[in-house]
Amino acid sequence: MDLVSAMKTSNSPLSRAFQIATMIAIAIAFPFSAPTLASAKKHKAPAQPTDSNYIAGLATANRFLAAWQGNDQAAAMPLITNHAKQQSTEEGIDKLFSGSYTRAFEITRGRALRQDRYQFPIVLLQTDDSGRAHRRFGELIIVNTGKNDWAVDKLP
Within a domain: residue 63? Predict the structure, then answer.
């Protein structure tokens, strides 16, 4: 029998010291391992149902923003509903597509407003003539216009 096994099974003071030391080691180690176990559960992404309507709406938002990024107003116009065109002036749409050549966008997870309408928070990034970057926060509202045809119903 080795020394560790003998200390575990005997009632000697050395055995009792081994048992106490083991309990202290567990007591010290547990608080450090518990947060690790808890954080592993926290970092799981919440399950969010994604249906074909959400994907179609997101794809339209991406196409519109890609046209904006490429400064391609002609490609963006068919993606805008008549309602959105009426809410914004022609000058407003021209201003959205004018300016900087260096552009980028960020789009975050959207949410359903109704089954046929989604809201996507966005950030439009542009540099001005001096090279300074500007951020403009906004949202796109994407709506199903019928026959699974999606369009931008609210411009940023």
Answer: yes
Structural domains in the chain (count): 2
Contacts of 123 (CB under 8 A, 6+ apart): 105, 106, 135, 136, 137, 138
Provide the residue range defining the domain that includes 63. Answer: 52-154
Looking at the structure, do residues 23 and 58 belong to the same domain, yes or no? Answer: no
Alpha-carbon dihedral angle through residues 19, 25, 31, 36, given to the nearest 10 degrees: -120
Q: Does 133 share its domain with 106? A: yes
Claim: this prediction has a pTM higher than 0.90: no
Query: Within 10 Å of residue 79's Cβ, how many Cβ atoms?
Result: 18
Q: Which residues pair with 120 in a beta bridge?
A: 140
Q: Which amino acid is at 62?
A: N
pLDDT in tens, 26-70: 667 666 655 555 555 565 655 565 788 999 999 999 999 999 999
Within 10-120, residue ranges assigned H as helices are 13-42, 52-69, 73-76, 82-87, 90-97
Q: How many CA atoms lie within 13 A of 56 on its CB side?
A: 15
